[in-house]
């Protein structure tokens, strides 16, 4: 395996860790901010940081003909994904939310095969199916542990929103991939974020009073989410996506739920049951199958 591919897997691993932390961290931040307001504030900070970094490196502006693709990627990965993610977390526990978001590899593999003509071997489809089965087991375990807490219509809406978010994120990965070789991860991420926050401007009226009354600790959590799981992790994700097939890169996200369970247990006291633990093991087996036998070696 050559050096760029090692870097791609390193970027993917760092992304997974940061995104696992983002689930409980977002729940904490939403103690002071609404779901839409948090998404707008967080990604405004992320966008400013990324555009400043791109400018300091003398990165070129995207061509006019590529703006629609960047806008579509931003709409999916910021406006739709983050709105669904934040609103879904209002009624679904961190671990269960991570499982539902974990359906991204399934949608990414399907979209990558159909739209980008990326070949997925039979073992790859088996691994994706195994990963999805593991996610389903975790969801069953979470459902049993949340009886009497997050249930009823609120839970149903939260599940639907998180599944919508997963599909939007997978679509964003497919839409932006052709631009990564041309512009690099930082430029693509920065400009897609810029377009994405335009789709969140509806939250401005509610955001202003929330910022005024938010404690300093809440603002620090927003900055953390903006700079690490936000700007840094999305750039690293784009770097991994540039070198790896969509299905392979997205399959690495199956590691997020087990990590989220551990972090949420330590921070929020959310304890996974036996089914959740078994599901995590099955999901990890699916990741291994996709990575080892699922796809042709990337260029």
Say what oligomer this is.
single chain
| Helical coverage, percent range | over 70%
Strand content: under 5%
Number of strands: 0
Class of secondary structure makeup: mainly alpha
H/E element string? Answer: HHHHHHHHHHHHH
Poorly predicted tracts of residues: 147-153
Report on the biggest sheet.
none
As for the number of domains, it is: 1
Distance between the termini: 10 Å
Radius of gyration: 18 Å
Mean model confidence by pLDDT:
84
Tally the helices.
13
- Overall geometric form: globular
Outline the fold blueprint:
Elements (H helix, E strand, L loop, with lengths): L2 H27 L5 H22 L10 H23 L4 H8 L2 H12 L6 H24 L7 H31 L1 H14 L5 H10 L2 H28 L2 H6 L4 H13 L5 H21 L5
Provide a concise account of the structure shown.
The protein is mainly alpha-helical.
Report on this model:
This protein has one domain (about 5-295). The chain is built from 13 helices and no strands. It is globular. The model is unreliable at about 145-155 (pLDDT under 50). The N and C termini lie close together (about 10 Å). The chain is about 80% helix and about 0% strand. It is mostly helical and about 300 residues long.
Descriptive terms for the model:
single chain, 299 residues, mainly alpha
């Amino acid at each position: 395996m050559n050096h760029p591919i090692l870097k791609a897997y390193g970027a993917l691993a760092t992304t997974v860790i940061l995104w696992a932390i983002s689930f409980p961290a977002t729940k904490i931040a939403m103690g002071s901010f609404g779901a839409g307001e948090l998404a707008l504030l967080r990604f405004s900070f992320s966008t400013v940081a990324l555009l400043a970094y791109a400018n300091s490196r003398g990165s070129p502006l995207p061509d006019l003909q590529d703006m629609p693709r960047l806008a579509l990627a931003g709409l999916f990965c910021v406006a739709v994904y983050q709105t669904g993610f934040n609103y879904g977390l209002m009624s679904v526990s961190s671990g269960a939310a991570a499982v539902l978001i974990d359906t991204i590899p399934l949608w990414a593999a399907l979209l990558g095969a159909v739209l980008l003509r990326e070949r997925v071997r039979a073992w790859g489809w088996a691994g994706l199916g195994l990963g999805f089965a593991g996610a389903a087991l975790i969801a069953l375990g979470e459902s049993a542990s949340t009886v009497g807490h997050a249930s009823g219509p609120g839970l149903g809406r939260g599940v639907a929103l998180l599944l919508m978010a997963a599909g939007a994120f997978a679509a964003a990965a497919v839409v932006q991939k052709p631009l990564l070789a041309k512009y690099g991860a930082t430029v693509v991420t920065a400009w897609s974020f810029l377009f994405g926050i335009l789709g969140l401007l509806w939250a401005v009226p509610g955001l202003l009073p929330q910022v005024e009354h938010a404690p300093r600790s809440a603002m620090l959590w927003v900055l953390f989410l903006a700079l690490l799981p936000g700007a840094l992790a999305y750039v690293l994700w784009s770097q991994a996506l540039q070198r790896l097939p969509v299905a392979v890169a997205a399959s690495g996200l199956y590691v997020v739920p087990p990590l989220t369970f551990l972090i949420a247990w330590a921070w929020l006291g959310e304890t996974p049951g036996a089914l959740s633990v078994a599901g995590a093991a099955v999901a990890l087996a699916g990741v291994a199958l996709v990575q080892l036998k699922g796809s042709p070696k990337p260029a």
